[in-house]
């Protein structure tokens, strides 16, 4: 069952990026809407795009301090981040493997950052005007998959 659901999630995510054309785009601009539950702020529903909805619950970082390693061409950059700070706005959808930061904005709405599923991520678009009916623009991006060889080109 899990494998079928995972494949279906990947198919839906691919359909979001491909749209109706045969050529893949780098990103799709979306206007996600966040609906909060009546019980408080621990559950939210996020409508990302047509047919793509996340049922979010409060998530935990499990540590006061988190070591973040960024691997670059120049080496590894390490820094500690405040886990409690990020945990305030951290939500997850375990079924769709989503992990998002929902940061409330001064003029209503949210800035949403994180993983929508195993193949796509979302981030706010700073230079695009807010839609009067749909909220703040965000970019839905495919996560690049890089395959490395293990040195067996002659096999």
Automatic annotation (TrEMBL):
GO terms for biological process: proteolysis. Residues 1-19 form the signal peptide. GO terms for molecular function: metallopeptidase activity. Keywords: Hydrolase, Metalloprotease, Protease, Signal. This is Putative tick metalloprotease. It comes from Amblyomma tuberculatum.
